[in-house]
User: Fold this.
Amino acid sequence: MIAQMRTLLRVKDLKLEQAERAMQTKRAQRDAARLAREEAARIVAESQRTYAAREDAIYDDIMGRQIGQDAVDETRGRVVQLEKSHAALKDELERELHVEARLEQELLAATAAFFAAQRARDKFTLITDNLQQAANAVAEGREEVEVEDLFARPRRRAG
Assistant:
């Protein structure tokens, strides 16, 4: 019985190690996602900060000059492209936020699985230790009985 419990305990140890590795992996992924989100937020903030100046620079090229419809269309196209690139940066930030939130939830689940595996392993450790102590007590009891029997027998005298 003790051997089987030790085997089960070893299985629980392996599951605990696996759960710990999964938790550490999710933590590393979440940390990487956090850094990516922070970088995306920094880029969006920088783009927002310089947006007006970049838009003004586009219009400065045509200000004070006589231009044709092609130049107006080209300028408008450049402004639209600027808007699209800024919107793409915002979209990337939103994606990074969602990835980070998803990985945070996965980390919470992996952490819960780790603690559940730890509780299961602790339970089997306790059971195995109790069985071993009981087996040791039985063995000690047998030894005591053998010793008592040995000393309780009358000695034979050589004669």
Summary: Helices lie at 2-60, 69-152. The longest helix spans residues 69-152. The radius of gyration is 37 Å. The chain has one domain: 2-152.
